[in-house]
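Protocol step 6 of 9: fold each sequence in the batch and record its C-alpha cells directly after the sequence line. For illustration, a two-sequence batch is reproduced in full.

Sequence one:
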Amino acid sequence: MKHKDNVKIVIAESAPILRTGLTGILKRFSRENFSVTEIANGEALPMFLRLHMPHVLIINPMFQPAQNAAALKKEYPDLRVIAYVSSMIDPKALSDYDAMISIHDEPDDINDKLSTLLFEPEADDDTQDTEQLSSREKEIICYVVKGLTNKSIAEALSISIHTVITHRRNIAKKLQIHSSAGLAIYAIANRLVDLKDIKDNIN
C-alpha cells in the first residue's frame, strides 16, 4: 500500500472520548488519506466488517473479548488488527495483534506505527533518510543541533523529558548517528536547518 491510497480504518471502542480523540489524531496526519469510522457497539462490529471490509481495525481488547484478534484475522486475512490499550494489560493478551496503540502514545508515534504496518517503503531518492523520521523527530533534531538541552526541548514542545530522550534514542537508532556534530551534518545535508543557525553549537 502507498501513502496516497485511501486507507479505511475502524475504531472499535466503547468510550466516546477515546474514540473521538483517536479519530481526531488520525485526521491530523495530512500526508495520509485515512477514512475513519467509529463503532461503539460490539454487536455492530461483525456486520460492519462483512459489509465494508476496512484495511485496519483499531480495537480495545476488552471491547468484544469473544471476538479476539486471532479469530478476526482468521476470518479476514487482509485485515490489520491493532490493540487500543487504555489500561494495564498482560502483554501475552496482545500477542495476536499486529500492533499496539496506547492512549499515552504521542501522535507522531501513532503515525509511525501505522506507517510501518501499512505502507511500502519509499523509493530510493535524496529524501529517503528524512522520510523515515516523524515530524516530531525532525523537530527534535533541529533543537538538538541548535544546542538546546533535553529539558529545554521538552518545555518548548510541551512534552516530558522522558519523551524527548525516547525520541532521541529512536533518532540515533534510525540514522545510526550518535553525536550532536553528526546530527548537525545530517540536518544541514537534509535542509532541516541552516548552517548559520547552528555554527556556534557544532563541537
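Sequence two, same batch, same settings:
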Amino acid sequence: MAKIHVTTTVNGDETEFLCEPEETLLDILRETLHLTGSKEGCASGDCGACSVMVDGRLVCSCLVLGAEMQDREVETIENMAEGDNLHPLQQKFLEHAALQCGICTPGFLVASKALLEKNPDPTETEIRYWLAGNLCRCTGYDKIVRAVQDAAAEMRGG
C-alpha cells in the first residue's frame, strides 16, 4: 500500500510527513519527526504516557493514526516550555519531586496543562479525576497533585 502524505501543524509549525496507513501518531512523532518527549507506555491507551493535544483535545497518541492528522493541530510536550523558560507546571513538578523515571511525566504534564486551560482553579478531586487516565509506576500521585495545585495557584497569580 502506498504511503500517505500528511500536512499538519505540530507545535505551531507547518509540518509534512509520509506515513503508512497503520502508523500511529506516536510513531510519527517519535520516529519520523524525532519528537521523543511523548513515551509509549502501553500502546493501548491505558497509561497516558503518550498524551498530546490534537485540535485542543487531549488524546493518547498511541490510539490515533498519523494519517488522521491532515489539517489538524498537534501539540506535544516539546511545546510546553518557552525556550529555556519552563512552564509553571514543569517547574512545580521539579520542586515537588513529582517525577522519578520520567516515562509518565510528559503525559502528566500535557494532561495537567489541558486541565488548567479548562479550569484554572481545580479542586484536588477534579485534578485526580482529570489525571485518572495517566498512570505512574514510580511515585505516589500526591506529589503530582500538589504540583498541579501549586502551578495552578501560581498561574492564577496567587
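Proceed to step 7 once all outputs are recorded. Observation for sequence two: The chain has a mean pLDDT of 96.
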